[in-house]
């Protein structure tokens, strides 16, 4: 019979049949399946193997029909889903859809003004709710607020409307509700239902179900009917296991593998769902104040985890709407709410309306104030002409600003009324920060012939940022219209053509690969631009010549002639001028040459003569220079150091010689800083000794003689920042003094310069003895708004100091979020350093945004593994990912194979090997061949290891459970030599590493136990002391006679009230194995176990272990036997779980 049913179900799963099922047919089929319980695998061939029965087509058909189903039909689908085990496929989301449909019916049924016919349609029965809740228990959807309310509130209300209740229904209610909601909340729901039934005038008082409910209220721990005992035990165990995972603060990187291996959700996402669920329950209960931070984290979790349960979304929507309406809400918090709400505006209509109303009120207030202030004045041009939102946001995006979700939302609302150029600009904005919407991909091809050069530039920029390659086809079609492009280029200003060349010069995203046809089309467009601009070079004004000169830096094909012509024209202009060029013009030309990567000798000779004439007064014995001359000198020095022209180096060489003559007190600080920069100029003919000594001497003189003005110029501030960056080493105290002076004028610096200054400040703060100068929050905000405009080296420098204690948390997390967007502009070394630096943050991997970043970036580095040819870079990269709690096995597998290549593994150093041990150990990924090679290298050079290398390597190798007696013996000996360099927690970690692999090292164990015992009161918790004892036991230490171990035991006895369940289990294992005679410890463990049991925080296995330990040591503890015996009996016998068919066969056998 079962085989026949299975064949019929298999027939229903055929896509054509499943898609043709009507709602009633599907429900009847699933109801029959729930009754017949077919086997989910069928024998094949000779009956030796089995193929699974896939019913995904039926599940997807159910999802399509669910919105039109009645509550009774929802129950039929839920029962069928349970029989077909759809809960084992989390991607189907059948449980959530069933709960949403049933919740909608409960809400509609509760409305007062509802027709009788509609009331019958929406009538929800208790069995309907129990079927959905039971499926949720199997699917382990414990953190769904809609299902939780269905179980604890709506089931009680529906059950209270009954006139009678059978014992079977009551038993099902108790088992299902308590199994899903937990014993505490479930028992409370049972108690409320019993009270409502007793108070109901229509309910039969002699109903057998009421007696079952009352009996449940009296029994603790909860007893369920035998029919539900196995299922209830399984649900309770799963729920308890998941709650332990999300509540623990331990190894958050481990995946959540619940009982029977059903749940495979990463623990970070599960924690996020749990936290959001807790926030929603707190908001519904209105018993505690939920902080803005917790509410924002809940909104973040709802977006990242794609939470769609209506109770969560409506509760968050209502709460945020009330919060943003408050006039006292801080601006930073308001911006955070805006970004969360606008990102998912369709889920939060009330909050969206509140934000729009707030904006309207603010605009009205500003307009009213402006009207009063300008009553007698004429309106400005800005007031008469408003820049369209798309152009404003596009301009900010090109400038490197971080785009707010509010701006993206506004773009989507006006895109249908925008021009073709604005549509291309919108595509560029979306491509820079996220994926291009489908609506834009559909709209763009229709408007290609309406694009101007400005729109083509935006489209090319969008294609360079497009990480999915969705715009490649659109751009290809655009570039194919050569006649239209030629017409646009002929009518476009030179500035736009330079922007087009700059956009075409950018490499495509590493996420994609360009086609040969696309390259040919782009080269054709470049030829059009050059052919149009080249004849105009003779008539171009000076400013346009400087702009066109930058094309040389784009490294496009066939641009040399254009750059040469522009340089010749510029040199002619300077020679023909009546007056010598100003120093400002000389610096601008030099900067243009640097941007264009051009070295035209004639132009450089002209510039060299002009700058030498300008700065000749500075080389005399008596300095006579005004402020403009000194400002020009500093700007020239900063530009020349970056450009490195030998033709211009003569000026720097003369200045360095003048400064080395002495008399620094009479020299202006600008001249000293410029000389220090020229000394570091690689093109200058200055000895290596002078190039190192002079900058250090200048820095010391400026600080000790207090030569810097209280309010320096911006040019001098930029020069000081560049000087500190170029110097290989700078004394931390002197660096902090210079930074404090520059910070006074930081408000006048560009965002990039502020970012460089912040990196210097935090890089030198760790080594400085004096307290570091405080940085105003506005400087962090400036960098945060323009973080995408940072050069790769500056972005990398910020990532490397993001873990410093004084670094701004908001900016640090923004760096994490922006790293995938900056990845294309970073080299392999820079990307590795960024991940390494961010991995050192205190909360690395704990935030949900960190997991989103590592998920995207790990795929990126795997796809671009050919970039990583240095073992040191790979070690830093993997260590950063490990600290960020990324455990994707594909990442470690691919890079472990890459490391086995001889040219790459030869570049490793000892520090890198210890980082690799730690990374692979954190992920618990083992490549035996690689580990053997690294271990042999490590052991050979063990005497060169530092304390951090010893600790990381031991922890990593032990986490991989690799046995290597030689490694542990020699590294342990090195650890003893460096024992004074290990702090207390590191000493405990060393013991844990050896205990994890049960590797004996008597000398190390004795040394560490003595030191830990001497500082036992400084241990962070009694759990750490318990782990120390466990590790010493596993290392084979003498747990009975050792005085140091006895000291640690005494500490555990004194703090026994703080033991956890796992701690008690470990101590019981030691006591049973070592036959410990520790009556005080045993009594403390028993008392603590009783406390945990009363709080329902003790596992049955722990209760069993406590009783067994007490009896083995002949310790009688009456209270423990009274309170723990019943819980311990649940694991006293082995319980075999049978399938439905096996249980039926067993019943048939035993019934005869």
Automatic annotation (TrEMBL):
Any Pfam family: RESC6
Xref: CDD domains: RESC4
Domain RNA-editing substrate-binding complex 6 protein: 869-1019
Organism superkingdom: Eukaryota
InterPro entries assigned to the protein according to its UniProt record, in alphabetical order: RESC6_dom
Name assigned to this protein: RNA-editing substrate-binding complex 6 protein domain-containing protein
Organism, as annotated: Leishmania tarentolae
